Model the fold of this input.
Amino acid sequence: MSGLWGVVMVTEEVWKKFLEIISNETNPVSFATWFANIKLLEATDEKIAIEVPMTIHKNMLGDNYYNLIEDTFNKLTGKTFDIEFYLEGEFKKNSVQNIIENTIDDVITSNGAQETFVSNLQPNLNFDNFVVGDTNRFAKTAALAVAESPGKIYNPLFIYGKSGLGKTHLMHAIGNYISQHSNLKVLYTTSDDFRNDFTGIANLNDYENSLDYANNFKNKYRNVDVLIIDDIQYLVGAEKTQQEFFHTFNELHRNNKQIIISSDRSPEDLKLLQERLRSRFTWGLPVDIFPPDFNLRCLILKDKMKNFSWADKVSEEAIEYIASNCDGDVRALEGTLNRLAAMIAMNVPSKITLELAIDYLKDYLSKNIYTNNQISSVQKAVADYYNLTVDILKSKKRSANIAYPRQIAMYLCRLLTDESFPRIGLEFGNRDHSTVIHACDKIESDLKDNKQLQEIINEIKEKL
Ligand code: ADP
Ligand code: MG
Done:
């Protein structure tokens, strides 16, 4: 094998020993049937490709004998490999794209000159200007803990929550902190960029160029001490990229390199992501950020106002007015504050009273419906349909005429709003996420043979 394939861990000699051990571990018939005619195609430091005579071998070796094969290689090399089986010709016949995707892990790590390293960190997003309240305290604490000892405590750190709640801010804060306090190499990226980078390899027609590109790709994402990857939910549907990320993750994790991931939902709720990825996301510490409560919204507003010369002219009531009208996310708060600033800039008043704030912001706030998140609109629609109040729907009352509409509402929230189970639970009187899951399962199964329920649900949906 050429040097192109890097450090070959499993040599022909290891392969012979492997077959020897297997022949001792299996009975002669099994050995003759399943192992006598298999060949070593390729071995890299992560994968072993084996050629088998028939499809049935793929199934047998892949299902029944996989552990034995894996363990045997492990005994011989001390490593755990991904083992893949190919029919004759299948491996070679792969398109450039597949070859690259199958071998990207195997390309020799470049020993050439390093390109200047770009961390993508935004210096203005740091811990100092991340305002803390009850809804994000846990996330901030965990983030700081990771920043102080990267790779040592929570790996991966998985931050999740709705958009606009400060996930990206926190991730940059961690990265900046680490960069300032150590020489560690930190890379911030989004799952979109990771994906574009990766699929870029496949778009190169020229094989040599593809390999160079693959090499650079691998260097970029695996030769770091801290990998921050934002909005992982966008890997849904990108199977090959998920696979590549899986290997990147493993490599970094094995070497105690810190991985920080964000997502708009919890690992359990990332339904469409490969199970092996999802389970890895729970290895370290998953932390959620909730929408800021009133107190935190006021604190954030005050903190952000510090940047304006008129900050001390704003009355407490004006701040509270804005805070109570933007109950969604921090981005909405910032938008409103910027609007206020634009109005004030035209003619700086001596005092920014409640009346003035209302006047300045009334058009803006009525156009941008920041109050009433999606969950509350669903709750309202269901409550209206059943002639209940939203408060009763969210209450602890268990009588069927309330409990069933409540389950319908939970189901619709899940269906229509893309909110996580815990978040929905929280909005329904702080119920556990398992209650929400149960409600969704129940309504889904009732829907199968209950025409009337189907109609009710359609009617509510239309109203929404
Ligand atoms: P996400 O990544 O969760 O969608 P961002 O991190 O992009 O949200 O936050 C949206 C905006 O709100 C950013 O400008 C960010 O700086 C700001 N922000 C979010 N949370 C806070 C906070 N606790 N303190 C100060 N600013 C915040
Ligand atoms: Mg973000």
Remarks:
- The two ends are 63 Å apart (CA to CA).
- Residues 125, 129-131, 136, 163-169, 300, 330-331, 334 surround adenosine-5'-diphosphate (ligand 1) (CB under 6 Å).
